[in-house]
Each structure stands twice: as C-alpha cells, then as structure tokens.
Amino acid sequence: MAVVGCLGDIAFEVSSKTVSSLQDVKWSGSARYAVHQRHLQNALTEFTGLDPDKMSFAMTFSYLLGVDVMKQLVRLWEYERKALPLSLVIGSKAYGKYRWNLVSHTVQFENYGPDGSLLTAGVSVELQEYIK
Predict the structure, then answer these.
(1) Per-residue pLDDT averaged across 63-68, rounded?
(2) Which end of the chain is more exposed for a tag (fewer CB within 10 A), N or C?
(3) How far apart are CA 29 and CA 36, in angstroms?
C-alpha cells in the first residue's frame, strides 16, 4: 500500500485493494491592502496583512475500490460542522503553517448498488488555513 497523503484521518492511498485519491489540487493565497484617498494626490496603498491561504481538491471514494463511501462522507461532514482543524499532507510534505478547516464541500453521487446503497461518489472540498 502506498499512502499518498491525508486530510485529518482520511488517507489518500493506492494499493491492490484500495484506491482513494485526490485530483485537481489548487492552492491560493492573497494579500490585503487598504487604499487611502488623499486630496488632490494619488491614493496611497498600504499593505495590511495576508488572508488565510485556501486549498481545494477533488477526491473519489469508491466501494468497488475498497472504500466505505458513506463512512468517508460522514467524516467530512463532521470535520466541517465541528470546525475541526485538520492536518493536510500530500506526499511527504505537510501543507500550511499549522492546520486547515474544511469550509465547504460538494458531493456528486455517481454509482449505486442494487439495494440503493452509494457505491461511488466524487467529492470536492475547499479548505481555509487555520493559524493558532
């Protein structure tokens, strides 16, 4: 088994029995500036700090590839609703200055079993950096 990374307790891994991977990783950051208007002169800009970094990516959970889809979705919902600070590791690198909060998610139900159980889901998440 090769663990590619993790978000909190959710591991991104590839093995002969399990595939739980991430795609379309985007990392963004921004700076804040105040603009002070001055009479008969150019406006003055002032650097006022940094906004928290953001990360977004997509994950695929599939029962057919060894993942309990609903268990992973419930785990994500708990992360978001309880505002839990999460570590994010991809490869051997931990991202962010400390932790991340899951601020939004989108789930696309893709495949169902004969009993109506969810077999495959695509999940997109957006994280915001959490600094202690």
Answers:
(1) 84
(2) C
(3) 23
pLDDT tens per residue across span 71-116: 999 999 999 999 999 999 988 899 999 999 999 999 999 989 999 8
User: Over the stretch 73-85, which tens digit does the pLDDT of each residue have?
Assistant: 999 999 999 999 9
Residue 125 near residue 59, CB atoms below 8 Å: yes
**Please, are residues 126 and 52 in contact by the beta-carbon 8 Å criterion?**
no
Q: What is the rounded distance in angstroms from the CA atom of residue 60 to the CA atom of residue 12? A: 10
Q: What is the mean pLDDT of residues 19-46?
A: 91
Helices of type H across the chain: 69-81
Structure token pair of residue 42: 């150019």
Residue 47 burial (C-beta neighbours within 10 Å; 0-12, 13-18, 19+): exposed
Q: % helix / strand / coil in the chain, to the nearest 5?
A: 10, 60, 30
